[in-house]
Amino acid sequence: MKCLKLKQNQIKELRNIINDNGSSSREVKRAQAVIMIDKEKDIEDISEITSYRRRQIYDLRKLYLEKGIIAIKDKRKKKLKELLTQNQRQEITKILKAKKPRDYDYDENYWTTVLLGEFIKNEYNVEYKSRTSLYLLFKEAKFTYHKPGRVYEKRDEQEVLTWRKKTKLKVKKAMKEKDTIILCEDEMILSTQTTFQKIWLPQGEYPKIEISNTKKNRSVYGFLNIKTGTERAFKKERQNMYITTDILKELRKTYQTEKLLILWDGPGWHRGSKVQEFIKKDKNIKTIYFPKYSPEENPQEHVWREGRNKITHNRFIKDIDKATDDFVNYLNKTKFSYNLLGFSADLE
What we know:
By secondary structure, this protein is an alpha/beta fold. The protein has helices at about 10-20, 25-40, 45-50, 55-65, 85-100, 115-125, 130-140, 155-175, 240-255, 270, 275-280, 300-310, 320-335, and strands at about 180-190, 215-225, 230-235, 260-265, 285-290.
């Protein structure tokens, strides 16, 4: 049986919602979905535009025909409150940790201050005038601000998901073992070529930083202890399997009797025969390779970034060895609470 068509006054009512700047994004999507299904648009197209599933779309139309505009409007009280209760703040913290915006009909994968503000307004009838209050909520949920990262073209998302699932079980087990040290390893190149980051200055002032005309490099090996947040970094001339083997021998001076679970990527200087011979002979070292083209899985990447922000960015490097020594010393004296698959050191 063919569904009844909307009346002109109903279409006008829905279009008013769409054109009203005061309407929320969810109200607009609901109105669009009802109008499009009435115009017999392809259901797959409607779903793609609104992010609603097929059943949601038909249920929304049915509800609108039964209850009218109340089915489209967000549930709000007449007057918005200014503050959340403590219980509401705790509830929002749990939501931020466990849910994505898509779980609440927003066409986004990640939370932003705008989305969080709208969500609180719709769900709790509270409207914050300042973003500071929203920042504090993210902080309570232990969120940090990030710009969207790069995703490598050759990255295999299914491979990454499978790796996370398998590795998380191994890491969880190792976290409970008192005699097992979990280390995330990576290497970086430090150069005399000056690197820059944004800085804040009074209006009208402009920074000038001397740069080097010659380029010299040093390699740094870094191992982040996930249980303690401590770092063990080493300065070297380059990277190869012989140097990597020497590094593992040095590492054994720090962790003499413990079992080592080392997570690192898969270049030749990690997989080389000399490295594998040493690991086999040691008998107390296990390694896990990070998935290809997925540097964001390795918390050591964040250690590099923090170290460079503190020590080398916006600075003229005249002496590469002194700069590298300063960089390594900073890392070895600082604790870092970056997480590996949700596991991290408690530094509070």
